[in-house]
Amino acid sequence: MTDSPAPPPDRYWEYLGLDEMDEAQWEALCDGCGKCCLIRLEDEDTGEIHTTDVACKLLDIGSCRCSDYPGRKKHVPDCIKLTPAGVRRYGWLPRTCAYRLIDEGRPLFDWHPLISGDPDSVHRAGMSVQDKALPEGAVKPRFLPGRIRVWPGEGPAGTPLSEDD
Ligand code: SF4
Ligand code: SF4
User: Fold this and answer.
1) How many domains does the chain have?
2) How many angstroms is it from 33 CA to the middle of ligand 1?
């Protein structure tokens, strides 16, 4: 996830590529779903990435925001900073992730705050982890495989979005 979004001046995401956006435009593109902050497990045999319903220890599950975004690397050294190149590289990014949608030339969903004008619309649409994920400390690592789930808007790994999605 990224930091708190700033209000966008126009529908810039419809004509700017990810690598053409300034910092405020880039940050505002995050829908605040929190799904990128869930713990993922890789199948050692297939390399497939599975998403759990257990959130990173720094995720505020109520707001779906990082509780210490500027200092997160101190606590979660492997937290990644999303970049345009990373969006193309990280196949595990949620299919609904706004960065992924724009990179794939798809429109934002109606529930995206940039479309609705309401930062809570992502939660009301049931597309965020708000009140649905468990905190990392609540689940012992050996039980994580049992917490794998398919989140709304997602599908099995490698499933393409249909034109209707
Ligand atoms: S999955 Fe994408 S849109 Fe959702 S919080 Fe993460 S970076 Fe933002
Ligand atoms: S530290 Fe955790 S909660 Fe914060 S941005 Fe990284 S993955 Fe998300």
Assistant:
1) 1
2) 6
